[in-house]
TrEMBL record:
Protein name: Molybdopterin molybdenumtransferase
Pathway field: Cofactor biosynthesis; molybdopterin biosynthesis
Originating species: Cellulomonas aerilata
Domain MoaB/Mog positions: 178-321
Key word DNA damage present: no
Length: 418
C-alpha cells in the first residue's frame, strides 16, 4: 500500500502554480500574490496628529503646570486639509486626528486638556515634546516591501495593500475545479427517491470544499455508472478552450473493486492515470493522474466521509500549489488536541477520525488547549455523513498506533479551511 505522504506527493506533482492576472482589491480576498507589493511612499505619508486637539510648540506651553497658558488659534485643520499655517511662537492650530502636522508645531495637546477655544485656546496640561504625533514612515518607508509574492490575501493584507496605494493586485488565477459524482443510485437532493436511490451529497460537499479552499467549483452533479457517459463528460472538459478548461477534475465514487466502478473502469488503462490503495482510513481506494489532453484528475472514493477526508488530505495541498502558496501543506495540520475518550484504530493505516474540538483545561499543569472528542461516539464509518457535520476537524492517528488512549495528544486537521 502507498503511504499518505507518497500519495500527496503524487497529487502535488500533477500541478504547478497558475499564471497571474490583475484583480481589483475587491476581488482579491483568498488569492495569492504573484508579485511583491512595495510602498509607493512612506506610511504615514507625513507627520500627523494622533488626537483631536491643538498643534503647538512644546516650548510655548512648558509653563502650563504653573497655571494655564493661552495661545492664539491660527487655523482649523480637519483631516484632509492641505493648509500649512506657520505655527509661530504664541500660536496654535486646532487639528483633528490624521491631519498633517503644521510647520513649526512639534506636539499635540488633546482637546480634553484645553478649554476647546476657537479664537484662543487655554492649555491646562503641557504636552511632552512630540506627544501624539504620528511620524512619517514609522509604519513603512518609501519603496519598502509590504507584502511579498506568495502572500495569501486576507483582510489585513488587503488593507495594507490599499494603504500603500495599490488599486489592484497581481495574483495567481483561482483554480477552476470540475466536480462530479458517479453512481446510478444518485439523485439530486430534494427529489423523490425510489428504493435503492440516495441524494447526491458528494458533488455539493466537494464543491463547497473547493470554494472554501480558494477555488471555483464547476459542479456537474451525478453521472450514472455508464462508461460512455463518463467518457463524454471527461472528454468535453479535457478538450475545452483554455479559458473554460478546468485546472483539476475531481470525481467521487467508482474507484474500488465493484462491478460498476466506472471511474476506474474508464481510466485505469490510461497511461497517465493510476489507481492505488493508500494506507489510510477512511479513503483507501484512490486514483489520480491526467486525462489524455493533460487535465489533472483526482478520483476520491464515494463514501461521503472518505470523499471529504480525501479532499482535505490530497486536494487541499494540490489547490494550495495551484493558487501559488509557497507551502502547499496546510498549516492547520500542525495544531494538536488532547483526546478525551480513546478508541481502537485499524492496523497499518493512518486514521482520520472526525472529532469535535473544544477549549478545555487538561494535563498535570492544567494547561488550556484543544480537547478532541469523536464526532460520532463509537463510530468511524465512512458513510456517517450526518455525524461528520458535527466535526470541527480530523484527528490524525499514525499508522503504527493501534489504540488511542484518553489524554493522548494528536495532530488535528481543521475542516473547512483552505
Ligand atoms: N470488495 C471491496 N469492496 C470495497 C472496498 C474494497 O477494498 N474491496 N473498499 C471499500 C472502501 S474502503 C470504500 S471507501 C468504498 C469506495 O468505493 P467507491 O469509490 O467505488 O464508491 P462507490 O462504490 O461508488 O460508493 C461507495 C458508497 O458511497 C455512496 N456514494 C457514492 N457517491 C455518493 C454521492 N455522490 N453522494 C452520496 N453517497 C455517495 C454509495 O452509494 C456507496 O454507498 O468501497 C468499499 N468497498
Ligand atoms: O477506506 Mo473507505 O475510504 O473508508 O471506507
Amino acid at each position: 500500500m502507498r503511504t499518505v505522504v507518497e500519495h500527496r506527493r503524487a497529487a502535488l506533482a500533477l500541478v504547478a502554480p497558475l499564471p497571474s492576472e490583475r484583480v481589483p482589491l475587491d476581488a482579491a480576498e483568498g488569492r495569492v500574490l504573484a508579485g511583491d507589493v512595495r510602498a509607493d511612499a512612506a506610511l504615514p505619508r507625513w507627520d500627523n496628529s494622533a488626537m483631536d486637539g491643538y498643534a503647538v510648540r512644546a516650548e510655548d506651553v512648558a509653563g502650563a503646570p504653573d497655571g494655564p497658558v493661552v495661545l492664539r488659534v491660527l487655523a482649523d485643520l480637519p483631516a484632509g486639509s492641505d493648509a500649512e499655517p506657520d505655527v509661530v511662537p504664541g500660536t496654535a492650530a486646532r487639528i483633528m486626528t490624521g491631519a498633517p502636522l503644521p510647520p513649526g508645531a512639534d506636539s499635540i495637546v488633546p482637546v480634553e486638556a484645553t478649554d476647546g477655544g476657537t479664537d484662543t485656546v487655554r492649555i491646562d496640561v503641557p504636552p511632552r515634546r512630540g506627544a501624539h504625533v504620528r511620524r512619517a514612515g514609522e509604519d513603512v518607508g518609501a519603496g519598502d516591501l509590504v507584502l511579498p509574492a506568495g502572500t495569501l490575501l486576507g483582510a489585513p493584507q488587503i488593507a495594507a495593500a490599499a494603504s500603500v496605494g495599490a488599486g489592484d493586485l497581481l495574483v495567481h488565477r483561482a483554480p477552476r475545479v470540475a466536480v462530479l459524482s458517479t453512481g446510478s443510485e444518485l439523485v439530486p437532493p430534494g427529489q423523490p427517491l425510489r428504493r435503492g436511490q440516495i441524494p447526491d451529497s458528494n458533488s455539493f460537499g466537494l464543491a463547497a470544499a473547493v470554494r472554501a479552499a480558494g477555488g471555483r467549483a464547476l459542479r456537474v452533479g451525478a453521472v450514472p455508472d455508464d462508461v460512455d457517459v463518463l467518457r463524454r463528460v471527461l472528454t468535453d472538459w479535457d478538450g475545452a478552450a483554455p479559458d473554460d478548461r478546468p485546472d483539476l477534475v475531481l470525481t467521487s465514487g467508482g474507484v474500488s473493486m465493484g462491478a460498476f466502478d466506472v471511474v476506474k473502469e474508464l481510466l485505469a488503462d490510461h497511461a497517465g492515470m493510476e489507481f492505488v490503495s493508500v494506507a489510510m482510513q477512511p479513503g483507501k481506494p484512490q486514483g489520480l493522474g491526467r486525462l489524455p489532453g493533460g487535465t489533472p484528475v483526482v478520483a476520491v472514493p464515494g463514501n461521503p466521509v472518505s470523499a471529504l477526508v480525501s479532499f482535505h488530505v490530497f486536494v487541499v495541498p494540490l489547490l494550495r500549489r495551484l493558487r501559488g502558496l509557497a507551502d502547499p501543506d496546510p498549516d492547520a495540520e500542525r495544531e494538536t488536541a488532547v483526546v478525551a475518550d480513546g478508541w481502537r484504530t485499524p492496523p497499518a493505516r493512518e486514521q482520520y477520525m472526525p472529532v469535535t474540538l473544544t477549549r478545555g483545561v487538561h494535563g498535570a499543569a492544567g494547561g488550556a488547549g484543544l480537547v478532541a472528542r469523536r464526532a460520532v461516539p463509537g463510530g468511524s464509518g465512512s458513510h456517517l455523513v450526518a455525524g461528520l457535520a458535527r466535526a470541527h476537524g480530523l484527528a490524525v492517528v499514525a499508522a503504527d498506533v493501534e489504540e488511542v488512549r484518553p489524554a493522548d495528544v494528536l495532530p488535528v486537521l481543521r475542516l473547512g479551511r483552505g
